[in-house]
Amino acid sequence: MADEAPPREAMADEAPPVRARGLVKRYKEVLAVDHIDLNVRAGDVYGFLGPNGAGKTTTLRMALGLIMPTEGTVELFGRDPIRAGARALEGVAGFVEAPRFYPYLAARKNLELLAALDGGGAREHIDEVLEIVELGPRAGHRVGGFSHGMRQRLGIAAALLRRPRLLMLDEPATGLDPAGMRDMRALIRRLADEGITVLLSSHQLPEVQELCDRVAIVDRGRVVYEGALSDLRRQGGAGYRLRSTDDDRALELVRTQMGIEHAANGEHGLVFQAEEQDVGALSLALAQAGIGILALTPELATLEDLFFRLTET
Amino acid sequence: MRPSTLTVWRWELRKLVSQKRTYLGLGLAAILPLIFVLVQNLHQHEGHRNENIFASHITQSGLATPVLMLLFMAAFMLPLIAALVAGDIVAAEDGNGTLKTILTRSVDRGQVFAAKALAAMTYGAIAVFLSAAVATIAGVASWGFHNVVTFSGSVVPAPEGLLLVFAANACYLIPLLSVVAIGVLLSTATRNSAASVVGTVGLVILLYIVAQIPGIEGIKPYLLTEQFQNWQGLLRTPTDWTPIAHSAWVCALYAVPALLAGYLVFLRRDVAGG
User: In chain B, which residue's Cα lies nearest the Cα of A95?
Assistant: First the structure.
């Protein structure tokens, strides 16, 4: 692969961390990825969500150059991993599915091997990354004896060896116990705070809700939403929950009020959607009807609600 | 700075050194000459009068032992040992999912393939020379470092004989490395260690069977298995280079397309395992 000229390098550095256009992957009759477009910006903690078999892992594999797209392109900082090979992965690290290591080698030996394959000064950072993932005391132990959680953490350590500007993680918390999940989220948050762009493929909706600022939701190989998480939740509509002294009468009244929609009796009171000024008018009407308001609270749609709304047809 | 292919090759060797199964083949390569020498000693062997010249001189010079061992092991045992690693070297990583681990670092696919092929060849060469070294040491310890006869019946001094023994083993590497190349191709294409090892050994057996089919004698000189004994040209007086040169180009016809095909498959393949 010929070296690129310096002006091209400068352009590449300004290019977004991930840009996919019309990405397609077909396995014989199965269309695993169907014209996916992705735009991960520098500094994003970007959630990549979707049900099992939606095409998330296949997309990540294409982004890392592990599998060839049937159609379309994906670029990392402006470089196509299929055409540019290992050069496209400069500043990029991560893993797809579970991180894999040589079980017959110690954790440190595995990292030494990977550092050798990274070149440069990666080897000097081995102790540091082992400390970050809290595997320092187990560095001399063979990976074959590691728990799933320890392998996940070693996967992060292996990624950090590359001093990445973009970290691509596929289900990093899968299989971890609650404490392991909490630690993994804290680690990802810390890395994001240090300025690393994170592309996080996950089934864990609370994890995405807690960590991510932008998301893409994929379903059956297609992106059904891409954008800011806050915009998605706003699109979900502002909801309210009302508990009153007489919920049945309150429901009748609510249904007659202008600007109030989707009113229904919920498990803990009435739920409905409305604009803020209409809620003010409703509270006055309830008071005039002699219905006491015990609680009137705004409720944003959860990511889970929105996820199922977008992916269940 | 990105790593060189030699760096990747060194780590491939370290991986081999760290795996127990690596020592299975090397153990076989080392133990068979020892068993041979032990049996000869126990039977107080006086020579096989009706067999080849080295067999009849087995007790007269320790240098006859490595030649006899190469005659015996070249046909099947050393190709089998080489196939154990060559057939496994890509497929095992694919099955374990570590191929994706190394292909997402700063090395190109071509470098990884070249390093793996080189490591498998290095292993094959080590097995050959280990077997030769053990046979020479055991033979010399039992029957002394004396002059040795060649296939032509002439006698060469012991130091020259030692040199010829190792040169003959080096010549044998030509067909053996072709076997390795085929093993690496199968390992890359099938993604299955067992299938690749069995496939490589199966091909060797198939070529032996083909060589026995009447009416196709014309193709016999071009079968890979026919090249396994061409190193014997080196142990004639004067040295007969014709079979060695023939072996070199015939083996290239097997090795080069196999390596090229393996390389192209490795470059284009989807790494979806693990």
Answer: B101
Q: Is A169 on the interface with B (CB under 8 A)?
A: no
What is the pLDDT, as a whole number, of residue B41? 84
Q: Do B98 and A162 touch (CB under 8 A)?
A: no
Q: End-to-end alpha-carbon separation of chain A, Å?
A: 46
Asked if residue B273 belongs to a domain, the reply is: no
Peptide bond into B33 cis (omega under 30): no
Question: Which has more pLDDT, A85 or B263?
Answer: B263
Helix axes B158-190, B77-86, angle to 10 degrees: 40
Instruction: List alpha helices for chain A, DSSP H.
Output: 6-14, 56-63, 81-84, 107-118, 126-132, 148-160, 178-193, 205-211, 229-235, 247-256, 276-288, 303-311
What is A236-311's CATH number? 3.30.70.980
Q: What Å distances lie between residue A146 and A182, A191, A215, A223, CA to CA?
A: 19, 24, 32, 36
pTM for the full model? Answer: 0.86
**Amino acid found at A298:** P
Q: Cβ distance A202 to A256 under 8 Å?
A: no
Least CB-CB distance to A85: which of B96, B109, B274?
Answer: B109
Residues of chain A contacting B97 with CB distance shorter than 8 Å: 97-98, 100
Q: pLDDT per residue over A138-171, tens digit each?
A: 999 999 999 989 999 999 999 999 999 999 999 8
CA dihedral sign of residues B248, B254, B257, B261: negative
**Is A100 within 8 Å of B18 when comparing Cβ atoms?**
no
d(CA A247, CA A244): 6
- Confidence category of residue A5, pLDDT binned at 50, 70, 90: very low
Q: Which residue of A has its CA nearest to B16?
A: A104
For B:32-91, CB contacts with A below 8 A are: none
Contacts A102 to B, Cβ<8 Å:
15, 18, 96, 98
Q: Which value does ipTM take for this structure?
A: 0.88
Which pLDDT does position A9 carry in this prediction? 44
B215 within some domain: yes
pLDDT in tens, B203-256: 999 999 999 999 888 899 999 999 999 999 999 989 999 999 999 999 999 999
- In percent, how much of chain A has pLDDT > 70? 93
CATH of A6-233, one of 3.20.20.20, 3.40.50.300, 1.20.910.10, 3.30.70.260: 3.40.50.300
